[in-house]
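Re: How this chain folds, sequence and tokenised backbone to follow
Notation: Tokens come from a learned vocabulary of local backbone shapes, not from coordinates.
Start of record: The labelled sequence and token lines come straight after this line.
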Amino acid sequence: MDHIQAHRYFMGIDLRRNVPYPEALAHWYDMVYLKTVESIRERGLLRWFPGRTETDMYLWVSEHRYLLEKSLGQPISPEAAVVDLVGQKDRRAKSRTRKLTASGRYIDQLFSDILVPLNGLPESWVALEQAALIARDEKAALHGLHIVPPGRKVDGPEALEVQARFDRFCEQANASGYLKDALTIVDGRVADQVCRYAPLADLIVLNVAHPPQPGAASVGSGLRAIIWRATRPVLTVRGKVSRMNRALLAFNGSPKSKAALFAAAYLVERWKTALTVLTVLDGEKVFASAQDYARSYLEQHKVQAKFIVAEGSLDIILDVIKKREINLVLMGGYNGTALKEVMLGSAVNFLLREVDCPILICR
């Protein structure tokens, strides 16, 4: 009842009139209660609490959401609060449930909340521009995150300048009224704080100022640490903003590349992106049959794509990107151990160094 009365109060402010209790109750039920309960159902939260009801869980999630907002200093969606609770109960449940109907069709946008770390350098503002384009198409909320060195004041001159520039950008970008935005300023290590805030978003958009270098140097890369540890897909941006209307999916049949396949199908269906699926054979673990899975999946979803199977080095990917004028690459994240990555190299690190267009790296 307290929640309904609070909802009624804020409805009155938004609508500038007295809102009858039945109207507020119905609106709260549809827009607040059901959205939270649907996330609880999707995540299977009740399985850990036999004898509890969905309403019990709603109250618990609401309290957790309030504590998260107080701790992180920014608005948190009900679904993000559920995700955080599930992540605490089961590490395997951290990745967000795919929003599909029983027939396998999308029922909601893939990216509702986008996190953009900003360091104040020109490259990070390019990442913000790219994130704003996605937010426009997805009708998503844009969350900026500025991280100052440990112990430094979060209201120092540099941080305040970042805040002012972020506000100016969002004011201009929001001329059409589509954008919800907020900037959080915290202190700490960059990778740690980005990973801390990652569960509250669907996508992290990062600028690539220092891609991981070959060999053992890659293990110390901050970008690599975020891609490895963050619980959300990462879109890396380098150089300039992309329309992202010609995509290449680097598919090897791994579970993470299948997550990239899911995202690729979504982009084709919702964004009308032209898609090319490339499988590079290595003679040991990646075979031509890997692409059969991708072909079958896309046919099932009535998604059109071009398919290429080639044998050789990773340079083949660069050749396809150039010939087909690709402006977005999708791929799975790191597979294997850091030692294997150092000894044999990493396709993720290679493309981060060599490709100028955005790369969507999926978990």
Notes: Strands lie at 113-118, 141-148, 180-187, 203-207, 234-237, 246-250, 274-281, 306-311, 328-332, 359-362. The first helix runs from residue 2 to 15. The chain has three domains: 2-72, 113-237, 246-362.
